[in-house]
Amino acid sequence: MTDAVTDQLIEANKRYAGGFTDPGMDARPVRKVAVVACMDARLDLHAALGLSLGDCHTIRNAGGVVTDDVIRSLTISQRQLGTRTVVLIHHTGCGLLGLTENFRHELELEVGQKPNWAVESFTDLDQDVRQSMARVRTSPFLPHTEDVRGFVFDVTTGLLREIHLADSPAP
Ligand SMILES: [Zn+2]
C-alpha cells in the first residue's frame, strides 16, 4: 500500500476494471443533456441528479461558470454529439464566492505576468447563475438554447433550487 493519492487511484482503477463490462455505448449521451457544474468535491452530479453512465456530458470548472471553453465544449456536445438540454449548477459555499478580480492582480505581482483568463468570481450566487444562463442562451454557436435551466445546489441538504432568468437580483 502506498501513500501517494495517484497510486491509490490506480489501484482503485484496477478493481473497477476487474468488474467492468463494455457497456457497448457510443459517445452520444443517452439523455441528450449537458450539465455544467462547479468542480466542488462535495457535488456528486450523478448521484444528485439520478444520472447513470452514458446519460450526460459533464462540464466542470471552478464555479461552474460559462467561459469560452465551456461554450467550446457545449458546441461540440450539441453539434457533434446530439445533446439538446443544458443544466447549469452552482452551489452554496463555493470557493469563488467572495474572491475578487484582485486575485489576478496578486498573481501578477507574485509571478510577474497577468493571467489571460478572468477569475470569474462572484458575490451573488443567483445572479451568477442567471449570467451563466444568459451566456448559453445568447451564444451564436449553440443551435439548442430553448431548454437551458440553472440551479443552486445546497451542499448541506443536497437539494437543488431553481433560478429563473426573470427573477430580479436581490436588492
Ligand atoms: Zn464551487
TrEMBL record:
Keyword Zinc included in the entry's annotation: yes
Q: Please tell me whether the keyword Zinc is annotated for this protein.
A: yes
One family from Pfam that matches here is Pro_CA
CDD domains named among the record's database cross-references: beta_CA_cladeD
Quote the catalytic activity from the record. hydrogencarbonate + H(+) = CO2 + H2O
Keywords for this entry?
Answer: Metal-binding, Zinc
- Cofactor(s) demanded: Zn(2+)
What InterPro entries does the record point to?
A: Carbonic_anhydrase, Carbonic_anhydrase_sf
Name of the top EC class for this enzyme: lyase
- Enzyme nomenclature, EC number: 4.2.1.1
The UniProt entry's sequence similarity note says: Belongs to the beta-class carbonic anhydrase family.
UniProt function note: Catalyzes the reversible hydration of carbon dioxide to form bicarbonate.
Which named protein is this? carbonic anhydrase
